[in-house]
Amino acid sequence: xxRITILGAGVVGMSIxxxxxxxxxxxxxxxxxPGDPPSTEWASPWAGASFIFGGCKDRREMQMQxxxxxxxxxxxxxxxxxxxxxxTINDAFDEEKEDGDIWWKDHVPDVSRVSS
Length: 116
Prior knowledge:
116 residues; alpha+beta; 2 domains; 26% helix; FAD-dep_OxRdtase; FAD dependent oxidoreductase domain-containing protein
């Protein structure tokens, strides 16, 4: 088991710690932690953790996006103090998309398509 130190307790640092802690000993070094009072001295109370699929060149990048989405989804359910929340997103495309272009549609709950 490796001993890993993560600098920062924002969305990225906490997500990485959550995944790595399953197999490694994790230490988080941060001035501010989730649950601390909001302050303009740190970004997490004001920054959003949004996730939008797309822009992948290959299957490896698609899988990385699916894994990241799954972890954020899990954190939104299991760790309210993380500040990660599920929100409805509506995507609008300038050009007509085929179902194959929207590769993530079968991996995200409640995806629906509205024709123009």
